[in-house]
Amino acid sequence: MNRARVWLVLSLLMSGISAAQGPTRPSAGAPRPASRQSRSQYINYLQTSLTKGTQWAVFENNNPQLWGKVRQTATNFLTNEWKQGKLRGSSPHEAFWVKCDNTTMTQNDLDNGRLILQVGVAPVRPAEFVTIRITQRTARRK
Q: Which residue, 12, 56, 70, 105, shows the most beta carbons closer than 10 Å to its own?
């Protein structure tokens, strides 16, 4: 079995809010955000939760069925964050987006068993949209 190799890349996305769909549930070990925490602390919380919440993917084959499960996991988690008022927008569609498909991974990624999840979130403060990229090593190549 492969061990999870996780790289996190955080960048600001200055364009508008895209449509969102995705998967993730918070890990029991992930820190819960406090009501008065900084944006960077909240983004770290999201990264940790999404990374731990998708670590099960390391035991799966990297294929479209896995991508759908990962998107659903992330969407569930981020919808919960939005319902708790931690993401801005009048709907989950405006508050975040989730990508995990053949547009987030190159053929080299697929050949080497890398699964790449990208999410964009609109934290309540400040008004910037933040993109988080999470990479997991999967059990087998596509």
A: 70
pLDDT, tens digit, 9 for 90 and up, residues 84-129:
999 999 999 999 999 999 999 999 999 889 999 999 999 987 667 7
Report if residue 73 sits inside a domain: yes
- Smallest CA-to-CA distance from 10 within 52, 42, 33 is with 42
Which of 4-13, 22-31, 38-47 bottoms out in mean pLDDT, i.e. has the lowest? 4-13
Residue 1 falls inside a structural domain:
no
Q: At what angle do helices 64-83 and 39-53 cross, to 10 degrees?
A: 140
For position 18, which CATH number holds? 3.10.450
pTM of the model: 0.69
